[in-house]
């Protein structure tokens, strides 16, 4: 019987492969007429995808008894943080050249940035305390802290929706991506609720 490939391998390959491809395209000039915007969009999408995958681990375990999904939850969450950090650094450094006065003015003029920054600032402590040592130190408060991931997901959906040229409430314009994120996130949140509470 052939040996099973650990699930962590394709996760690592997808995460680092995407970053290497992005780096190659950036260095070779294959990111289109606006490479900085392309870098921002690709890293932002990567962060959302890994965040949704990490949230899918608990439902997969509850529905199918897939223990391996729980073991990969932290890894997926940390990759979400990695992509979100790159997304933020590209925006602050490459887009604004660390010009804080211009950056602050832009944040005030574009509300979607407030939601994105808030989501990132909440994601940082979740990633930092995702390790077993913090789980032991915080005890019951660890689970309470990590429930903030639901708020992070909500902020991310609003951030993406407001950054698009469309209106999610009236279903007009470029709403497909934020709508998919919202529906997927809502479904995963529903599946994470214990059956007896439903």
How would you portray this structure in words?
This protein is mostly helical. The chain has one domain (8-192). Helices cover 78% and strands 2% of the residues. The protein has a two-stranded antiparallel sheet with strand order 1-2. β1 and β2 (172-173) form a beta hairpin. The mean pLDDT is 85.
Q: Give the % helix.
A: over 70%
Helix segment tally:
9
What's the multimeric state? single chain
Low-confidence stretches: none
* Silhouette: globular
| Strand arrangement across the biggest beta sheet | 1-2
Radius of gyration: 18 Å
* H and E string: HHHHHHHHEEH
Class of secondary structure makeup: mainly alpha
Content of β-strand: under 5%
Cα distance spanning the termini: 42 Å
Count of the separate structural domains: 1
Indicate the mean pLDDT.
Answer: 85
The largest sheet, given as strand count, sense and whether it forms a barrel, is: 2 strands, antiparallel
Count all strands and give the number: 2
Give me the secondary-structure topology.
Layout: H1 8-27, H2 35-64, H3 67-95, H4 100-109, H5 111-128, H6 132-138, H7 140-146, H8 148-163, E1 166-167, E2 172-173, H9 176-192
Antiparallel strand pairs: 1-2
Helix pairs in contact: 1-2, 2-3, 2-9, 3-5, 4-5, 5-8, 6-7, 8-9
What are the key terms here?
9 helices; 198 residues; mainly alpha; two-stranded antiparallel ribbon; single chain; globular
A few lines on this structure:
Helix content is 78%, strand content 2%. It has 198 residues and is mostly helical.
């Amino acid at each position: 019987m052939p040996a099973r490939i650990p699930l962590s391998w394709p996760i690592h390959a997808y995460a680092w492969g995407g970053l290497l491809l992005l780096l190659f395209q950036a260095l070779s000039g294959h990111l289109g007429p606006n490479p900085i915007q392309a870098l921002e969009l690709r890293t932002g999408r990567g962060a959302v995808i890994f965040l949704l995958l990490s949230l899918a681990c608990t439902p997969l375990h509850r529905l199918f008894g897939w223990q391996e999904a729980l073991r990969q939850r932290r890894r997926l969450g940390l990759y979400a943080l990695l992509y979100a950090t790159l997304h933020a650094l590209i925006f602050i450094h490459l887009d604004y050249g660390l010009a804080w006065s211009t950056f602050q003015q832009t944040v005030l003029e574009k509300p979607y940035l407030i939601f994105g920054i808030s989501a990132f600032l909440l994601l940082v402590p979740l990633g930092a305390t995702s390790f077993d040592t913090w789980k032991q130190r915080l005890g019951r408060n660890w689970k309470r802290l990590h429930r903030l991931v639901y708020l992070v997901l909500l902020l991310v959906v609003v951030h993406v929706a407001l950054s698009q040229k469309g209106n999610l409430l009236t279903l007009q314009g470029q709403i497909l991506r934020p709508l998919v994120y919202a529906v997927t996130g809502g479904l995963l949140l529903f599946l994470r609720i214990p059956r007896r509470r439903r």
